[in-house]
Amino acid sequence: MNRFAFNCPNSQCSSQKLEEVMVDVTVTSEVTVIGGEEVLQYGKQTNLDGYVVRYQCMKCGQHIANNEDELFKSKALSPNEKENSR
Questions:
Q1: Beta strands per DSSP E along the chain
Q2: Is 49 exposed, middle or buried (CB count within 10 Å of its CB: 0-12, 13-18, 19+)?
Q3: What pLDDT, in 10s, does the model give residues 48-79?
């Protein structure tokens, strides 16, 4: 299976982290540590239902695609040569 790398097309950003934004989703998270000063730490997270409304750069919020088809046609993805050579 080919793998791809994400590079934000925003010339002011250059992040390599992509995120998907979902709506109508129920998220549950395991609380692993309850610390002082209202500090909580979390473990495993579960997402139920919902759907993806867009893919965007995690750093600057640049809109990349509305669905997987658009995402894979996007110029923000390129073959990840390092992963594909394994």
A1: 4-6, 18-35, 39-57, 63-65, 77-79
A2: exposed
A3: 999 999 999 999 999 999 999 999 999 899 88
